[in-house]
Protein: Sulfatase N-terminal domain-containing protein
Organism: Chaetoceros debilis
Amino acid sequence: MFANNEEQNYATDFLFDKAISFMKNKKDKGKNFAVMLSIADPHAPNEVRAPYNEMYNHISFQLPSTGKKAMRLNPALPDWGQVDTFSPETAESNISDWENDTVLQKGMQNVFGMIKLIDDNVGKMLQFFDDENLADDTIVIFTSDHGDMMGEHGRLNKGVPYKASAQVPMIMRWPNKIDSGKIIKTAYSSVDFAPSLLGMMSVEAKNINSSGIDGSSEIMRSGQISFNEEQIRFLTDSKMKRWAAAITGQYKLVLSKDGPWLFDMIKDPDEMINYYEDPKYTQLASTLKNALIDTIDKFNFPLKQRSYLADTPECWDSKNEISGWDNNLCSDLNDIQNRPACQWDFVSSQCPRVCGECCHDSSGEFWLFKAMRTCAEIQEEERFCQHSAAQLFCPESCGLC
């Protein structure tokens, strides 16, 4: 039925053509229009029509440096990003397998092809606006619901708060109203889309129940760079209930059962370093943490149903490969045959908990049974110690020392 006719019937082309036809019909009748065009690609099963399915066959994808470091556990990922198969002992073979996986390579080549096809169709739509003298009076917005890890931090798909997964484009064109080439570095979220667009059109949103921010004044303001570092937006894991995050233009704080992770996305654009315990970030971390905890509670983020650490435990074993002892982890010291290694200072300093060098209650708070807890409360409520979060945060009060 569709033989030799893919260009008209492939979903991306078909939907763009239908949208253009709809707008042409409205324009010819002298009517206004609003179109939301949702394109499924790029998406599994990572297939695309000719000639886009061969355009990028010359590219051989290497695992990104963040992926190689993650597989080597050097440094290890937070629990919310970790993959069970990552091990320094098998890292090099896993990296080789990834880079030589023909199915994976072809899939990523086709992802590039899908993006190129979308890009060409966007160009076709913009040309339609020019041809019909609609360009100056039409707001065009290109955005997405999520990204894809594409091998960053050793992962594929989505579901984690890293930029590759969570940061999406928001590209706008409105000639003579929005400065061409303007870049807004202020943090915004998908919930801000509707109030911002309505604000740009001076439409009063009377009956819209939205927690979004109207960013229209920043969008319409003249100037090439705009940056409000004070604005905080929020992200949450959904079904897995593993994490929640607070984000500004430069910083990102993630709370989970793994303890707080604070990223400085300018100093560390690859999101590899946890700055939470750095004294230079103390005030910033406190501001983001308080805002995030309030938001988790107010909007019933899924993490509220689980336990999470609002502060770093006093006794904390590194999850990285033990520096100076290749292919070994702190968790390996649970094996009785490996325990003698705790006699080495360089091992016990990286693994103080498993080596018995540290067994103290932690200052700060953790979330358990729908409330913030401290170790002082644990002493009064023994039932809390049945939970791993309490045992990790308050080992002394839980009688583990």
